[in-house]
Predict the 3D structure of the following.
Amino acid sequence: MNLYVLGESLMDCLVQPDGSMLPVKGGSPYNMARAASLQGTHTTYLNPLSQDVFGQALREQLAHDGVHVNPQASTKPTALAVVHLQAGQPAYGFYREGIADRDYTNADMVAALRAQTPGVLHTGSLMLIPPEHHKILGILRQAKSMGWVISVDVNMRPSVAPNLQAYNAAVEEVIDLADWLKASDEDLQTLGYTACTQADAAQMADQLLQRGVKRLALTYGAQGAYLRVGDQSLSAPVPSVDVIDTVGAGDTFWGNCVSLWSQMNEAQAQAGLHDTLQHALWAAALNCTRRGCQPPLRSEVAALL
């Protein structure tokens, strides 16, 4: 199946030790699209990109990584995120009003999906924050009725949402539409769940599969990750590497999972659980050895396995 990605693209403005800012291409769904494409999956990024210099750079990066893009450029500016790294962990501040990746209509997105053979439609992250989630829910419901597989990376950013209760409710609505789902321990904690440790992964997975999720990834930062497909599950620790920063690690992990799973039916996905988990973990680990989000090629991951 081909992959289509609906979500934010932006410039991460990394705060430097001298107080200056270094712009780096980013956005969770944008990163995920790149990661999946670099594994050989036919990937399309659906949101408009700006005509401004940042939008041109984002478009060029997608083209370099083999991602197909929306040919229609927006006259609105590219979104910005100010990223301050603390002990290698990113803290974010977002500027997302009146920006290019939100410059779309439901009708246009649904028409674009209707023109394609149903595959995997991925979304998540900032697109789930109210009121944007209303547009996303409308698109996902129509896509699901057309036979699309819905992939969601929760990737919550509670500091950006003006109303956390409304944000949590929006995310829960989207989870109910997800066929394939990724959530981190921090996501689960933000949503108010109590089973948020790796030891609780099976319990949490049972709850989510009862809601319709068929393939699930739960990530636990430096502790490792857990995959579940049907009644088969597996946990593994994070590979040991020299970490520069963790920007885009989760996006790379999920992009690799979705890339591999998009070529597998349920029986194959269950049988390949070990290989999928190891491949995704090593891809994320390689990304962590590089500054910013730089997902590896499939050949780079294969060389380590």
Notes: The domain at 3-9+27-74+104-304 is CATH 3.40.1190.20 (UDP-N-acetylmuramoyl-L-alanine:D-glutamate ligase). The chain is about 40% helix and 25% strand. The longest helix spans residues 273-288.
